[in-house]
Amino acid sequence: MASPSTAAELQQFVCAANWMRSSIPDFARVTSPLYAILENFMQYSGARSKKQLQMVALSSLGWGHIEEQNLAEVKSKLSKMVPLAHLNPAWDVALVTDAMVILWSLTSLAYDEKEAYAIVDSCKRSEYLLLRPRGFRLYTDHRNLIYIFYPYAIDGSMQHYQADKLQRWSMTLSSFNYEIEHIRGEDSAWGDLLSRWDASTVSQVTARMHRLAIIDQVSPLVSADLEWPSYAEIAREQEDALRRSVVSTFCWDDAQKIVVNCEGRVWIPSHAIDLQQRFCVFAHAGARGHSGVEASLKPLSDLFVWSTMSDDMASFVASCLHRLTTHGSKVPRPFGENLRATKPNELLHFDFLCLPRSAVGTAYILVLKDNLSGFVELIECERPTSNVAYHGLLGWFKRFGIVHQWISDQGSPFIGELVDKFRVLLGAQHHFGTAYTPWANGSVEVVNRLILRSLKPRLNQSVASDLAAYTSDAKQYGFDRLGGVAPVTAFMGLLGSSQLSAILTATSAVEISVEWVHPEQQQHLKEVHVTLNELHQKVSTTCAKRNA
């Protein structure tokens, strides 16, 4: 074959050689120099067509001795390539199969299926060689290949889907003329040669068992190593501050043996930065989670006072990383606005929450929540039934009074005849949320989310004893939505408490006369009535502003 003289002849040679690339080993490396100089000729002519390349001589762009050697190497490869051979119809054809244990795509198959799949896939891929009048011989080291032909008659314990799969494979093999012969695994040299190729480099995986360490600690505040502030520590800081300067706005409390202001709140000196930060931690990261600024500041300001308390708490909450994941955000809801209450016990939400079944058999919780105050009660039950919903509502009404506005979803326990007759008897209105719109009853859905978040850190969602503790704890702490007021205060007028109240406890009892008690009680009830009216108005206004 004469050497090409133009770029068009070189292009024709390279394209013709490409038809034989499957028969030439290392074809890409051998022909890469010719492709590179051909690309230079195309860029020089500004076109890739044969007509334009016909006018470009190879000698014009440096075709020399090296290029001639590359061309000769390609010609040598073409002359020595393996020619296509045709099977002799008089010879026998043998097919040897073996399943690979470590192949990633077959790890989920049973051993019988692996061996059967190797046979079926080999027959499909070599169909052009195996479809012949004389047939072929199939050699395998798996003796139980009768599964392929009639799996139901051999093993009755085989899974139905597994038997169907093998039966479909046997129908695929029915188009071939073959004879199956079994050979021992150690004698199957050709099958093992492919299935165990380079098996020495396969890393052996050692089975390991890990034990999960369960630490019964929901919050770092319950750690035994945590040191809470004490009377002695506060007194030392106050004594050190009084030695430096005289404080005229505070006075000495003989009962508590500590310096307080005119309202009875304990004074924390300005230089006690470490003590102030610890109080911020205890007030913010309480048992009910990482609260907002108002909810964290309220219990702290009720007991303690220092000049920069508000700014310190706002800065502390803003820098809390956990608060970013727990404070949530306002999400616009479709289908209009939800119903809102303007006073406690005016609007009641209720819903069932499903949990894993506990040791005592309970698997559901009936959640009841007051709309305005967020006051919550949880009732455990085995199944969500109308009877449970009826007794839960009845218990609420016995303790706190009848509520004439109800909100729930359209679950079967709430639309049953028993609950409906109870509603008619009380003259109440039952508002059902739109189907598949849980945000329509979002006030109680938030409680469900908080319950799950409280139980999941323990890695045990079936602890029934945690429900009473969670309910009691959720009522005691203030919410930003209520302006820092606790639900138990907004709903019942009782003062909420926090873990900070454990630091300051009464040290001695006060003696009073019987004649003093009755007038004091009457005065207290009048003050409570006025305070509750002001509190309810404040909470209603705050909620309206936040919902706007």
Structure characterization notes:
This is Integrase catalytic domain-containing protein. The protein has 548 residues and is an alpha/beta fold. The protein has four domains: 7-79, no CATH class; 94-196, no CATH class; 227-326, Endonuclease III, domain 1 (Orthogonal Bundle), CATH 1.10.340; 348-476, Ribonuclease H-like superfamily/Ribonuclease H (Nucleotidyltransferase, domain 5, 2-Layer Sandwich). The chain has 19 helices and 14 strands. The chain has helices spanning 7-18, 27-45, 50-53, 65-79, 111-125, 127-130, 160-173, 189-195, 231-244, 273-284, 293-303, 309-318, 321-326, 386-400, 417-426, 442-455, 465-476, 487-492, 514-547; strands at 94-96, 136-140, 178-182, 251-253, 258-260, 266-267, 285-286, 289-290, 304-305, 348-354, 364-370, 376-381, 405-408, 429-432. It is elongated, with a radius of gyration of 42 Å. The model has no long low-confidence stretch (mean pLDDT 77).
Quick tags:
548 residues, alpha/beta, Endonuclease III, domain 1, 4 domains, five-stranded mixed β-sheet, three-stranded parallel β-sheet, 19 helices, 10% strand
CATH class of the largest domain: Alpha Beta
What is the assigned CATH homologous superfamily of the largest domain?
Answer: Ribonuclease H-like superfamily/Ribonuclease H
| Share in helix | 40-55%
- Please give the CATH architecture of the largest domain: 2-Layer Sandwich
Number of domains: 4
Structural class: alpha/beta
Question: If helices are DSSP runs of H or I spanning 4 or more residues, what is the number of helices?
Answer: 19
Quote the beta fraction: 5-15%
Radius of gyration: 42 Å
Averaged pLDDT: 77
Separation of the first and last Cα atoms: 89 Å
Number of strands: 14
> What is the CATH topology descriptor of the largest domain?
Nucleotidyltransferase, domain 5
Largest sheet: 5 strands, mixed
User: What strand line-up does the widest sheet have?
Assistant: 12-11-10-13-14
Shape: elongated
Flag low-confidence runs: none
Organism: Phytophthora megakarya
Pfam family, one: rve
GO biological process, one term: DNA integration
InterPro entries: DNA/RNA_pol_sf, Integrase_cat-core, Retrovirus_Pol_polyprotein, Rev_trsase/Diguanyl_cyclase, RNaseH-like_sf, RNaseH_sf, RT_RNaseH
